[in-house]
Amino acid sequence: MATPKTVAFHTLGCKLNYSETSAIARQFEGAGYNAVKFQDGANIYVINTCSVTDFADRKCRKIVRQALRHSPDAFVVVTGCYAQLKPQEISEIPGVDLVLGAAEKFKILNYVDDISKAPGKGMVSAGEIKEANSFTDAFSFGDRTRSFLKVQDGCDYKCTFCTIPLARGKSRSDEVSSVVENARKIADLGVKEIVLTGVNIGDFGNGTSVIEGERPKKEAMFIDLIKELDKVEGIDRFRISSIEPNLCTNEIIEFVAQSNRFVPHFHMPLQSGNNKQLRQMRRRYKRELYVERVAKIKELMPHCCIGVDVIVGFPGETNEDFLETYNFINELDITYLHVFTYSERPNTPANEMEAVVPVHIRRERNEMLRILSEKKKRHFYSQYAGQTRTALFEVSKNKDLMSGFTDNYLKIELPYNPEMINELGTVQLGAINENGNFEAKLVETFPA
Questions:
Q1: How far apart are CA 76 and CA 147, in angstroms?
Q2: Backbone φ and ψ of 153, nearest 5°
Q3: CB-CB neighbours of 144 under 10 Å
Q4: Alpha carbon of residue 230 to chain centroid
Q5: Contact assessment for residue 209 and residue 172, using Cβ atoms and an 8 Å cutoff
Q6: Are 43 and 31 in contact (CB under 8 A)?
Q7: Which of 284, 309, 313, 315 is close enough to 353 for a disulfide, judged by CB 3.0 to 4.6 Å?
């Protein structure tokens, strides 16, 4: 086929996926393609999928249909975690022309010229997950005020509910020097905030770090990485996307507390507030360790925002177990929850476990924790009403407003000022509006 001139992208899932979609987009642009908006119609659509959330198949089918409505003759490529786990299933979705697995997605330009619109199943190139054994760097740019910078990929943990090791392979990391170089590139693009992302970023350096032509070797630890990034000029803020509690060491917490660039915001997955469930999930800590981590953070940074992942309805979770989790979280000095309703995943140990929790009970427990999360967030916000904090301003969905986040992740809204987009300033925090965000007033702008 003739080389298409336009390509559009759609990303499902996590910050890591967004960084990788941007990296793939730059490959296309470097090869002479023009990246366009999804709704504008393109010759090629690339859909980067996720398998962590429910209904991956349904979401994928929906996006394929939307792409073909915008451009009926377009070639559709599906990649990402779901593509690695279910390549044949995806290839049978009407309109899908090419499916690329984890080891193939960054070689996408090698495949696009061979795509055909022949009727029937799409072409599949998805090898065994062990072939995904190299690290490809990536960062997002262009669609947000902040950039997601990939520093690590894959996971060696064996949590019984998780398919990520099956979808992304073993843990592997970038080199410190490479991450720093990418951070400088991002700074040169004018981005003010970088969010470090990966599957298990606290494992940076413990996983295999692959350098072409050399044997795999161990790299520096995560603490060494963030110390080097803290020296990068031009980036005002670094944010750690998510880090396991057993890897969020006192040394890391102490460093963030004294850093001028790493903001007071941690996101630590908990998954369950009782040790029986943690053991069945094969998590690498007990709840007592989680208490210690939160206490250490709050001791050094009382203003720090702490986000928490929780799974409800895991097999064997009794009502008493859930209430133990609920009460445990209620007592924790944390800010908000990301609540996930457990869903069965093929080829995971949890899928074979007995004492399955009925779906309607899972949903009830999710709702209870969602309400608790709102209470926690409101309480955290209420402590800062009337105070001043530094915020980074960005475009809001409401054209009359701009929004942003303070260093400790309080969301603000204030009248739109085009000159302040992607700039830092001091704001006074007023009332909390109906959206749960602070109405703010600009007090001082920072010199460029």
A1: 26
A2: -145, 160
A3: 17
A4: 21
A5: yes
A6: no
A7: 315
- H helix count then E strand count, the chain: 12, 19
For strands 424-432 and 388-395, give the pairing: antiparallel
Question: Is pLDDT at 212 greater than 90 in this prediction?
Answer: no
The identity of residue 113, as a single letter, is D
Residue 38 phi/psi, 5° resolution? -55, -45
* C-alpha to C-alpha distance for 49 and 60, rounded to whole angstroms: 7
| Sheet strand arrangement including 336-341 | 265-271, 305-312, 336-341
Alpha-carbon radius of gyration of the chain: 22
pLDDT for 279? 97
Question: What is the band of 211 on the pLDDT scale with cuts at 50, 70, 90?
Answer: very low
Beta carbons of 308 and 326 less than 8 angstroms apart: no
Average pLDDT over the chain, rounded to whole? 90
CA distance 115 to 123: 8
For residue 307, the model assigns a pLDDT of: 98
Q: Name the CATH architecture for the domain at 146-382.
A: Alpha-Beta Horseshoe (3.80)
Q: Which CATH number fits domain 6-131: 3.40.50.12160, 3.40.50.2000, 3.40.50.150, 2.60.200.20?
A: 3.40.50.12160
**Up-side HSE of residue 432: CA atoms within 13 Å toward CB?**
15
Domains in the chain: boundaries? 6-131, 146-382, 388-445
Residue-wise pLDDT tens digits, 63-76: 999 999 999 989 99
Q: Tell whether the torsion through CA atoms of 277, 222, 268 and 289 is positive or negative.
A: positive
d(CA 164, CA 173): 16
- Chain-centroid distance of CA 243 in Å reads 11
The pair of three-digit structure tokens given for residue 286, joined into one six-digit string: 């007990």
CA atoms within 13 A on the CB side of 123: 16
